[in-house]
Specification:
This protein is of the alpha/beta class. Helix content is about 30%, strand content about 25%. Among the domains are: about 200 residues, ANL, N-terminal domain (Rossmann fold, 3-Layer(aba) Sandwich), CATH 3.40.50.12780; about 100 residues, GMP Synthetase, Chain A, domain 3. The structure holds adenosine monophosphate (AMP).
Amino acid sequence: MLSTMHDMPLSLAHLLRYGSTVHAGAQVVTWTGSGSRRRTYAEVGRRCSALAHALRGLGIEGDDRVATYMWNNAEHLEAYLAVPAMGAVLHPLNIRLFPEQLIHIANHAEDRVIIVDGSLVPMLAPHLPRLETVEHVIVTGGPSSALAAPSGVTVHSYEELLAGRPDEFDWPEVDERSAAALCYTSGTTGEPKGVAYSHRSLWLHSMQVCMSDGANLRQGESALVVVPQFHVMAWGLPYAAFMIGASLVMPDRFLQPAPLAELIAAERPDFAAAVPTIWQGLLQHLKQHPQDISMLREVLIGGSAVPPSLMRAFEDDHHVTVLHAWGMTETSPLGSVARPPAEADGEERWRYRYSQGRFPASVQARLVDEQGRSVPHDGVSVGELCVRGPWIASSYYGVSAPDKFVDGWLRTGDVGMISEDGYLTLSDRVKDVIKSGGEWISSVDLENAVMGHPAVAGAAVIGIPDERWDERPLVVVVLHAGQAATPAELRDFLAASVARWQLPENWAFVSEIPTTSVGKYDKKQLRAEHRAGRFDVIRP
Ligand code: AMP
């Protein structure tokens, strides 16, 4: 028997209509460095219509790709909503990619239009002649005349293009399974690959962002979105905010600790999201420039493992709750979220919160061994994490990857354990785990332990070749300004929490650890630097 329910497609056009009318008064706030620009969701809705008319006028039809090369700001939100709502496909380009990757991605996606922030024009301009399918560049927030267009490309000013356009648009009905947005993986290993999110997957994911076992985004609150809009759709926050009626606080290009602290003081957000390196930077800044940030009800951190010391510092020094979550470009990205069970208490509660968390009902997870056999969820057996669900990728756009998509599951490349009550604890990436004398050492566990030392500002651990053991850990450390610690001291400190045979004997002190295009420690780069002999490795 078929159900008697409506088969109503889930579409971002409906989300746009809904948010801009029912939550008309919610705002997108963009930081300018010295103050804020504000736009209500009602205005955003009208400007989205104008943008859609403008893009139609430029010939955007069907599933044409419209790229963005932008910071997090109001105009980027407009592109997020208008482009998919008109049936086209939004493609946020990662502004921190190496030129070759950027060019590869834009050509692979066949972007026809790029919307670019005026402040980013100098970064994009040199690559334009190599972007084979781009016909129009639309410049926001500044004069389009600053950009000399290569032949075949027309340059427009965003505001001039929108001016005088109708503030209503006849949003088309689209198949909910069709692509709404395209994000490429950050390419930590190998070429970036495209993940095409559907209207349906983005809608369902937005509901999860609002659920109490998800990010629990709430009506009337404001969310500071530090995670870039080009990194897995800003973790779904913009669409979820439109769905639930939360306001968005966008930092634009002001991502350093000092301006972020200023923005927090001025806008007093209730919620914020970013990768751990951003929060480590903010914590250090707050040590030197104390400031109240306790208005933040919750801070969502993911993208790499959150060191327990970081969670404790936020809680103990600033009365801010850190919410640890796991996800990836292929998973939209939520993923597991580390909310402890209600009955957990005291230290047990913390142990749950340190883990990568539990999966929601919509996402199924399992662990497999190297032969692809299931590994029990008993909290001790280790395997590679595989996931599937309505917002989990089942393939890449235009590239076959039979090793990633196996028997209907996405193989994540992450290794860890799942407890009987469903909590995931990751030990490593398959490619980062250190194989020492036939045993595995978790680089993440070592990093978390080293970062617990009060003199350590940051630490990344990689495996380096070793004649006797195959591989041994090398700890690359950044110390807090004005603080000192020797490798022997740090090793002694680790001895309390790390098994003897895992204690690292190779240490290097650096002034900065390189990060990837999305702000994670770049272990590929660290391995290359080690091979090139750039580290002064100390053995205590
Ligand atoms: P990306 O697609 O750039 O977001 O990268 C996804 C990868 O980041 C995952 O496969 C993990 O290796 C890593 N990652 C994300 N969240 C976490 C976390 N909470 N703990 C450890 N690793 C994480």
